Amino acid sequence: MAETVTVALVGAGGYGDFYLRALLADAATHAVQFVGVIDPTISGSPIVDALHAAGIPRYPDLASFWQATSAQLVVIAAPIHFHAPYTCDALAHGASVLCEKPLCATLQEARTMDEAQQTYGGFVAVGYQWSFSAAIQALKQDMLSGALGQPRRFKARVLWPRTATYYARNNWAGRLRMPDGRWVLDSPVSNATAHYLHNLFYLLGDQRERSAQPVSVQAELYRANSIENCDTAALRCTTAQGVEILYYASHATADIAGPRFHLEFDQAVVTYGTEDGQHAPGLVVATWADGRQKVYGDPFADDARKLWQSVAAVRTGEPVACDLAAATAHVRAINGMHESMPTIQTFPAELIQQNDSLTWVAGLQETLIAAYDQNQLPVEVGNVPWARAGKVINLAAYTTFPQNRALAVD
Predict the structure, then answer these.
(1) Is the pTM here over 0.90, yes or no?
(2) Best exposed site among 17, 45, 195, 292 by fewest CB in 10 Å?
């Protein structure tokens, strides 16, 4: 019989609900003792009855939890600006961590988390579920073996409209930083579609548990909604190996389009595509120059794999598929994109449309799809008068956000 692993969950709302339901349904199957939920607002949640019925204690904060008990694995599904302090706190109390994406807001936070990991032991897994999926792991294994040849250009686009309710759901959505100065950097690229940018870096990593780091980034950042940060972004990154990464994300298009990716190698092309959102079926498929194909499967299959692999890693000491180091490439890219365009550009008022609670930009969807198809940024497409070029930022020795004075102003 497998050794029982004690697990606590920080944050029961938002994506925390996914972990909560998985733990309530399958803890016994995976020899897990679910020892507590930490959430200051859980008293008004509809899941309180389910927790009560299962005998799961509830705590208003981590201090109360540690005073009462302990856990071997702490799952963190709290707001972005709490990821670093909660992770460090859990590590200091002898627990390993599964932190929901993104890892954190800034590279210096990532460094602090890594220092805590080195000091106290344990591990930090990061909840990019595609990295844990059988489909992506099989693809990465083939990439590492050289079966697809040398990578040349990777690109992805995710156009997911979000209504006013999305931005009103909490006090940090769409913010650059909190009133007390803590960075959030919440945007489509850093949060809702973060999986797909991270995936491009992750696949290019030279080991199973590593990602390629961006050494340069150029970004275009725009907004139509009344928020601090961007709701639309286009990025061009370059890795140390010379691979170009192009990424397009928006919450201000009229319709859903994506997720979709296209990975170019010198011997094959790998694609994934759906235009109906993340819950539509889609397969990762490689096609070689001679017409051979290999189907890797659906990367959305078994989303809870990241949770149960983290539980298993507590028992065995085996590395998790996506750890703190692997997730840092995404943080570097996000920090770099804000350095590239420190002032968010507002779309022209005459292009901003409203339909019920959705704010969207006329022609934006077509422009971003054209840019993706042509391997360009919007400013390079032509006949896009609102497009503005960001500065190319060298990230090779970049360690601390922000460097640009326009961002550093309190």
Answers:
(1) yes
(2) 292
